[in-house]
Each structure stands twice: as C-alpha cells, then as structure tokens.
Amino acid sequence: MKELLLIITAYLIGSIPTSVWVSKRFFGIDIRDYGSGNAGATNTYRVLGSKWGTFVMVVDMLKGVIATSLYIFIPDYLVNELHRTNFMIGLGLASVIGHVFPIWANFKGGKGVATLFGMALAMQPIVAVSCVGVFLLVLYLTRFVSLSSILAGVSFMVFILFIFNEKETLYRIFAVIVALMVVLTHQKNITRILKGTESKVPILKYRDRRRQRRRN
Asked: What is the residue extent of each domain of the chain?
C-alpha cells in the first residue's frame, strides 16, 4: 500500500505542468498553442526564450529527482540496494508519465526528457552529469535543444551499457527504453532537422553576430 501511494505521489509530482503555468502566469498564453504545441522545455526555449526555457528545464528535472527519491519514506529500501533500484525506476517512470500526461493540464504535457534526466540524476549522478555534458556540448555546437536531448538520451544508454557497465538487468533494460523513447518522441524534430526547418534557441547570439560580421 505504501508503495502504491508513493507511485501515485510520484505521478502527481511529475504532472506539475511547469511550462504551462509559467506561460499562463507571466505571459498570459498557453505554451501549447504556440511553436510545436508541446509543453516542455524545448518549446519553452523556442517560444519564451532561453531564460524561461532554462527555468522550465531545471524544474522539470527536479520533478524527476524528487519523485525518484520518494523511496526514502520506506525504510526497507534504504538497506536493500536491488529492491531500491527497482522501486526508484518505478517511481521515476511514474513521474515521467505524469509529465507526459499531466492530470493538472488535461493530460497534454511534454516529452519527459528533462524529467528522465532528473530521474537519472537521483539514481546515477555521475551518468546523469555525463549526459548533461553531452547535452550542453551539442547545444553549444548546434543550438538545437531537440538534437541535444536526443543525443543525451542515447548517450545515457551508452554510458549505462558500455562505459559504466551497469550490472542490474532492469536498469540496463530501462536505459535502452529511455534511448528508444527519446528518439521516438522526437521524430518530428528529427524530420525538421533533416529538412533544415528546426528552430534554434536564442542563445550564443553574440557569437553568431561576430561570425556574421567576419563573413561580411
């Protein structure tokens, strides 16, 4: 019963529609009516700018961290590593499902990438930080949040399976599912990137201006 209550709590935490509340509170709009129509950090970057996009991304990651850490309320999981890992995966996935299908926003949410990274941060901080490094590097080079998210998600699988060689079978399966899910939920973004129509986030604009001046 306690596990079920915590799973439901994790879902409710994940359901907090950060980008929707921010767009309505500070801009008087619903973020889902603009850009890609997605209630996630990528669309927030695109529509509201890097300041609010970063804020939404951080809060959505914290949702994953907090939800995945709810295991601490059951003492048995503090001493049994295998059971703890399995339960943390359940809690984290519940928060991701909440983000994608939020009860507080008519079940129309985001793609869950930031919340997934928050979940990874709670479970494997070193792996999560490595993935964030991949994300930031790709973002710096391309300014595509979507591409950064995709490659960070794929790198999560690579880190778990090959570099850190995680032994827990369920965790390895979870890593593969994460990579597949990130790629599948970004199919439209991949198509736009290939067509050259994907929007870039408004960061590093001073660098781009300097490069443009050099060309001229």
From this structure: 2-215
CA distance 192 to 167: 37
Q: Is 185 helix (H, G, I), strand (E, B) or coil?
A: helix
**Which residue matches tokens 């059951």?**
74
pLDDT in tens, 44-92: 988 998 899 999 999 999 999 999 999 999 998 888 888 898 999 999 9
One-letter identity of residue 180 = L
Note the pLDDT of residue 212. 53
The answer to whether the CB of 143 falls within 8 A of the CB of 203 is: yes
DSSP state of 216: -
DSSP 3-state of 55: helix
Q: Which residues contact 88 (CB under 8 A, 6 or more apart)?
A: 68, 69, 71, 119, 122, 123
Q: How crowded is residue 205: how many other Cβ atoms within 10 Å of its Cβ?
A: 12
Tokens encoding 178: 């994460």
Polymer length in residues for the chain: 216
Angle at 89 between CA 91 and CA 187, to 5 degrees: 100
DSSP state of 163: I
Of 197, 66, 90, which Cα lies nearest the Cα of 144?
197
Nearest Cα residue to 161 out of 180, 147, 174, 146: 174
